[in-house]
Structure formats: C-alpha cells, structure tokens
C-alpha cells in the first residue's frame, strides 16, 4: 500500500467524520443532502460485500466496517434523529436519473458477469455520481455552511489522491483498473468547480 492510498483513505474518513460531528454538534442536518448520503450508503454496501468472502488485511477490514457504520449512522441522523431539521424541499434531485443508468452500465461494462462483480462495478459507477444531489442542493439554495464545504473539500481530495494512487500503482505494479480510473476521474471532474469556489472564497 502506498502513501497516496493511505492519505486518500484518511481524507475520505475525515470528510465523513467532519459531517457527523457537524450534525451532532449542531443537532441539525441543514444543508446536507440526505439523498447523497443514501447513495453513499448504497455504494459502501454493494462494494464491501467481500467482507463475507475475502480477507485482505486488518486495515482493509476495519476501514470497510468503519465506512459502513458511518454511512448508516449519517442516514439515520438525517432521516430519523434530526429529520425535522432536514431540508427535504431543496434536496429534490431525482435519484432514478442516477440509479437507472448506473445499474444498466454495471451490467454492460464489468470485469466478470457474476453477482459480486456486478455489484462492485455498480458501487464504483454510483460513487462517481453520488455527490450530485449534494452539489445540486448547494446550487439550488445558493449557499453552503463552512463545515459542509470542508466535507466536500476532503471528499474531493480523497478522489484526487486516489488518482495519484492509480498512477503510482501503474508505474510500480503495472496495475491498471480502467473502470475504477475512468469513474474516479469523472467524479473528480464534478468537484473541480467546487474546488475553485472553495479556494477563492
């Protein structure tokens, strides 16, 4: 495992922790897209089914479990514990516009036509667009709390570091996963406009 992968994982985890602490401290889900969080929970669920079939390392297993727990705790906070503070009116992105094409693509373009592989591919494609409801919500309201922008920044940083990780792995291991790389680049592009606003403001 290289430094880019570790820093990417840390950035990803930090983003989720920032979001959870924001909700717990303010006892509010204002400005947070519940739909994006549902999609991320779905991403982790379909990607980490190999927890039941394959052991890679203690680090790998612990990180997967933490991401799963955090994803579902976030969804619980938004839709159950602090649902009165959730802005459902502005969280109006239609998820079928993402889920239908992602599902179709995961059946058409995958490494092998097996249930676990199709679900893993689905998670990769879905992660690349899962942030769109959050970005749509921000563009619709025209505002975002500082803590929410920090969350988005570290999510974007995680993706950028993973691109560096893939470049490193290609040069050191001659390993290249076209599905993961293309999806990761697409996801990073979605963050570019946000990165510009984050840095300038």
What does this structure look like?
There is one protein chain. By secondary structure, this protein is mainly α. Helices cover 75% and strands 0% of the residues. It has one domain. The mean pLDDT is 88.
Features:
0% strand; cytoplasmic vesicle; ER_ret_rcpt
Strand content: under 5%
Shape type: globular
Percentage of residues assigned to helices? over 70%
| Rounded mean pLDDT score | 88
**Integer count of domains:** 1
Unreliable runs = none
- Counting H and I runs of at least 4 residues, what is the number of helices? 8
Radius of gyration using CA atoms only: 17 Å
Characterize the biggest β-sheet. Answer: none
End-to-end C-alpha gap: 35 Å
By DSSP, the count of extended strands is 0
Topology as a string of helices (H) and strands (E): HHHHHHHH
Briefly note the structural class of the backbone. Answer: mainly alpha
Give a quick rundown of the structure.
The protein has 201 residues and is mostly helical. The protein contains 8 helices and no strands.
Helix-strand layout with pairing:
Blueprint: H1 3-26, H2 34-47, H3 58-81, H4 96-108, H5 115-129, H6 132-141, H7 146-173, H8 178-200
Subcellular location: Cytoplasmic vesicle, COPI-coated vesicle membrane; Endoplasmic reticulum membrane; Golgi apparatus membrane
Protein name: ER lumen protein-retaining receptor
Keywords: Cytoplasmic vesicle, Endoplasmic reticulum, ER-Golgi transport, Membrane, Protein transport, Receptor, Transmembrane, Transmembrane helix, Transport
């Amino acid at each position: 495992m290289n430094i880019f992968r570790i820093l990417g994982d840390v950035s990803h985890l930090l983003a989720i922790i920032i979001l959870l602490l924001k909700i717990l401290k303010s006892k509010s889900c204002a400005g947070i897209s519940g739909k994006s969080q549902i999609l991320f929970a779905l991403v982790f669920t379909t990607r980490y089914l190999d927890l039941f079939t394959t052991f890679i390392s203690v680090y790998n297993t612990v990180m997967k479990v933490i991401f799963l727990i955090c994803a579902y705790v976030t969804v619980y906070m938004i839709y159950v514990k602090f649902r009165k503070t959730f802005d459902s009116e502005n969280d109006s992105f239609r998820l079928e516009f993402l889920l239908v094409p992602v599902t179709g693509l995961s059946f058409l373009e995958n490494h092998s036509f097996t249930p676990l592989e199709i679900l893993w591919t689905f998670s990769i494609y879905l992660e690349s667009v899962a942030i769109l409801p959050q970005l749509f919500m921000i563009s619709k309201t025209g505002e975002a709390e500082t803590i929410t922008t920090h969350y988005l920044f570290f999510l974007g940083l995680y993706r950028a570091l993973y691109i560096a990780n893939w470049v490193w792995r290609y040069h050191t291991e001659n390993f290249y996963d076209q599905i993961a790389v293309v999806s990761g680049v697409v996801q990073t592009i979605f963050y570019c406009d946000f990165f510009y606003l984050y840095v300038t403001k």
